[in-house]
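User: I'm new to structure prediction. If I give you an amino acid sequence, what do you actually give back? Let's try with this one:
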Amino acid sequence: MSLHRRHAVYVLTEMLPESINKVQPTLFSGQLEKTNFNRIIGNLKRYNYSSWIQGHISKKECCYYKSSDSQDRCECGHSKSSHGEEALKPADHTESWSLHKHVRESRTDAFGNICFGGLGHKTAKYVRVSSDTQPELLYELLTEQWKLATPNLLISVTGGAKNFYLRARLKNMFHRGLIKVAQTTGAWILTGGTNTGVMKHVGQAVRDHALSSSIGGGQIVAIGVATWGILHNRHTLVNPQGCFPAHYDADVKGQGQLCCLDHNHTHFLLVDNGTHGQYGAEIELRAQLEKCIARKRLSNKASGVTIPVVCVVLDGGPGTLDTMYNAMLNDTPCVVLEGSGRIADVVAHVADLPVSRVTISLIQQLMKRFFGQEYEDFSDAKIIEWTKKIQDIIRTPHLLTVFRATADSDGDVDVAILRALLKASRSGQGIVSVDYQRQLELAVAWNRVDIANTEIFTDESQWKSEQLHNAMFSALVGNKPEFVSLLLENGVSLRDFLQEETLCELYRQLPNCLFLRRLAKRASSSQRTRRPHFGMRPRAFSTQSQTISLTHVSEEIRRLLGSFTCHIYSTSDTVYQLDMSTASDSLSKSLGSQSSFKEKPPDLHRNPESDLFLWAILHNNRALAEITWEECQDCMAAALAASKILKKLAEEDKDADEAEEMKELAKLYEKRAMDVFSECYSCDEERAQKLLARVSPFWGRTTCLRMALEANNQSFVAQSGVQALLTQIWCGELSVENPVWRVLLCLLFFPLIYMHFLDFRKDELIQREAERKEEMKTIESVTGSVLHMKSEGLESSQDVELKPLDGWARLVSLYTSPQVKFFMNIVSYFAFLTLFAVVLMVDFQTTPSGLEILLYIWLFSLVCEEIRQLFHDPDGFGFRKKVKMYINDVWNILDVLSIILFIFGLVFRLIDGLFYAGKILLCIDFIVFCLRLMAIFTISRTLGPKIIIVKRMMMDMFFFMFLLSIWVVAYGVAKQSILIHNEDRLGWILRGAVYEPYLTIFGDMPKNIDNTDFDINLCSMNGSDPLKPKCPMLNEQEMPAFPEWLTILMLCVYLLFANILLLNLLIAIFNFTFQEVQDNTDRIWKFQRYELIKEYYSRPAAPPPLILLSHLYMFLRSVVLRRASNPWTDFKHKLSQTEEEELLSWEQLMKDRYLTSMKQEQMQSTERRILDTAQKVSTLCEHVDREEEPSSGLVVRRLARLEEQAMQSARALQWIMDNLKLAELKPKDPPPSLNLILVGDVTDSITNPKEREESYHVKARRLHYPDSRVTRFPVPEEKVPWEVSFSSYNPPYYSSPDSMDESEPGAHSYSNPGGRTGLRGRGVLPRLGPNCSLDLILTRWRDRACSELEFLALRDEHQKSLVLPGGEVDSVDDLPQTLVKTLGKKVSHKISEVLSEKDKVFELYEGYVDDSRNTDDAWVETTVLHLHLDRDCPLLADINRTVIRNKHSIQSLEWQEVSGKTSLSSDQRDFLKRVAQLHSSKF
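Assistant: Good question. You get back a string of structure tokens that encode the predicted 3D arrangement of the chain. For your 1483 residues, that looks like this:
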């Protein structure tokens, strides 16, 4: 172990307390050097976790033992032995036991990891917490200590605590739907945590998911909030230092009334209130925790949306009904599973009925039916209370969703849960667009495209691009490509969305990848080297010194693309810079309002689609890249750039798997570019070739052809369209149709070009133009002037009329053609080799002859040409990259080698003593020059690919020779040592050990290993003769003494392996290489052909040695005259803006055609058909299963109709009997109407939820009275009128003690005109009887055109709501004091004067108001007045000044549009609607 690790282990050992050493005594036994370092780090984390738990989390324990009726049991439920000594009081201590008084908190003693026995040994985290623990602390425990990711949804599952039966289909749907919604949305599931009832079903669902996704898929977070005092075997969880792990036995034997924990949950919060065996201790803390989580923001802090909470109800009893009621009071949506039993079925069966139909008798019938024997224990008072709660529940349909397994439209449970949340957010109380935006952000957080597509992007919702920007950013950062595609389809404008600041933010929030690390490194180095310019303050979001800007992004992308490209983003110092820390809170502002950017001049070359595609490619996001590439305009250049970038990143990435993914994605985009180009080329060859050579403004101002070559995209370059362009460049101004023999004849005798012996490209263009005009004239005679005008337009678009080439132009075009240059250089090279051979063999004198001097001049011209090629850089690679490219070419290496050998040979040749050595070097150099001759065959379609095969075989030969040398040396050294004793001549040693064994392979058998061929005259005894080998050791007969049998055996074995095995292996290798390369040689040859064409395109026209004149001219022009070289118009040309737009539009059209054909092929593929068939079969099976199950809900509804018919028949019969008794007297009442109801009529008014019912007050009957702890007596809908008998009605009495005494006389002389409220007394109202209030609706027209009607509203910053200005008054003639305080006395006085003029005021309403403060003896009555203010009214000007003055106060006034989307209460919106009708304004 290193010294640093030893020191770290010692430090960690000292940091850990003695308690940790006791828990793990073997860990620190004195042999720390052998201890696992990672294990010590884990123990340190465990110690920090234990310290946090012990410092923040408490438990509860009884501190006063009070014996109960049970033997040796305290009233807390614990035994006497479990109490401490201080809890045992004297026998005469008679104080009664109280839960709040005699239970105290202390440090928790149960936390850690719990291990369940059985198969799999599942583990979970747990902690024992006090029932008074702050929910914020529990949330910190879940997220910070237990490292749970912030949820996007909280699913609170409640219901029956006892085991209950679920039908197989409903059970499967619940399991599948719950897990699907938790997995797709990243939700937390909150349950009771025990292994009974609904908690057990949730655990089984989690278990099924774990078994089916053991290889992939994330873990489902299931948090159990259970009561500590009801747990069986909880003593195994107790350890003051924590249990890591605690082995928990979930054995149900002997548990009695207790419960075991469910082993499928992942986390447990065990709530302790100090009691034993008492259920429900966790209910209040669980509700507080749910509220706390609901206040937290989603993981995307910029969205501002809080975590949604949904309650899922299965089965359940009265406690579950209370949970539902409280949840819906907190605006928490509930999903009830019909068919799960008991209270869930009761609510489900009345959910579609009007509230007036939900009577006490109906609830009694349903309770009796679904509760069975339990119903006998229910009292009438409880039935009334539950009826009232059920009525309140179904009165909020936007919070109640019933999942019916038999309904086709409900889908799975996951869809029902998410629809319930969206329905709850669409409550109609606020602005609709804001509600839809919140729903969209929730759907993005859940990653449920199906929900967004069916529930959010509907025909009713009208979206603007800026409203979708936040969702678009969340989808991009959260890697949700399906949502990105959906948002693009629904109107997101990338040009508006992807501003510079947003793009910087996207790069800053890149996931951990190679590009981000490179970017951070570049940003860090630039911060160290760069100093800020004086007076410049970069626009940045920097909280650290390390920042990322678009400058850094551009520099890094240029490094990946190549130095030949330009920066794709501006390198100005004022670009936006972003830090590497957490996201800025100003992001939402930048996405919502980007007006500051609109003032800047736009970047003409910026392409937001390409920006987004590049961002996706840089972090290897395949799905997002596919979507954004389809939106790109310059799609072929984008695909080739992506291929280049990905290949470069794959070379640098050390992660083999990630590098392989990048290579695969690079191949995909190479194929995309090939397919698009093929589509373009098949449509229009000329335009397609323009796409290859055009300069792409966004992608570094380079061309598609250049990027394909740099990315080594051989398949792309090998396409017929690309090769056609290269062939055209190769031929220059000559036509590609000219045979080679004609070109060679014109090269030898140039006057033939004036006899039209060769065709030129311009001549072909003139001929095609003439044919086109002739065709247009023919069409014109048939179709008329329309096409004639079009033809004129086409003619006028030509800038210069095409003219034939003159004589000089034809001559220049001939000799400047790369093809002609190539032929002349071949002739020149053959002449050079002939001259070289003549000099070496015939005319190599001591003094150089004229031919030899000509040879030297010729070679000097070759050297000058090589220097020109090295420094000639039309692509802008830079000298370093150019040198690297030059060296990587094999032919250039041969050129350099031949020149160096020639120079050394020339130097040696001029020295007298080295004359012959110089000639030898020149002879060797001649061989190299001859090998260089093979380069001329690379242009040949037949021999060019064969040269590639030869290169590959030479590589195979090199590795084979390495293998062969092992056998040669092994046999040669052994043979030489056996035959010859102490040979000291190096040359003969190498000859015997290497040379002779090598020749043996080719059949030259050695004669000195066999005594029969031994001749003593052919060797030297002591090696004194340098021309003879040394003789082997001899015996007395002067014959070799070596073992003849051994040398012959060695030779046979050597020949067997070397001559048979290895040589045949070489042949097999060559055969494999040939077969492997043969299929690709054509592609490789076409790719390498470009370099030869480029070389001769840039080469001077004159061949060596006349090329020296061209070099002299180029030197004078570039160095002396300083004139730039001519651009490469054939390889790279810039189009005008009009041509650029037209060409890119055409390319976009071709890309769309390609994508359409590709999708059609995918739809018709065998795999797709199999998937479609499987989906149809599964859907059919579900329909069959649904039909086989009886629809209990439908049966019950039909029974309800039948019962209603029976009741009507009974009333009719009773009327007949009464009238028959009266004989001849007329009946007192008219006969009842018999509304016959058909059993099969599904649209009956009884089950229609929109049926018009009698209006009773609702707010005045809410069970929880505001600003107090008083609970009203439950008053069901049918018992509201005073005329209806309600014998059990016994409301409590409450009057607020702040103004009058409760025993105020005359309290019983008042009766609420709205009916019973469940509370007597004054409540919080100031007086008994009616309490008057006044609401004022002041309106104005927004402009003189009277286009939009506005009203004055009061905004309360505390309540975050809008209300009409008004308040309590003593008389209708007075203004409310709150309004006077807000408007000021002066304005209020003017309003009072106007209100006194009755002709200007319209009274909208006067009477009783349904208010939550109403009681049986006190209620609120209001008067709503409407006053319209003209634009020239002085009062309007005063009010406007007041609005501006109080703009930032707590209660501010503001003008709002009169609209149904206004966030007012329902009754106030009704008043606004009447105002809109009065002014004929839209609402």
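You can read the tokens as a compact description of the fold. Here is one thing that stands out. The chain is about 50% helix and 10% strand.
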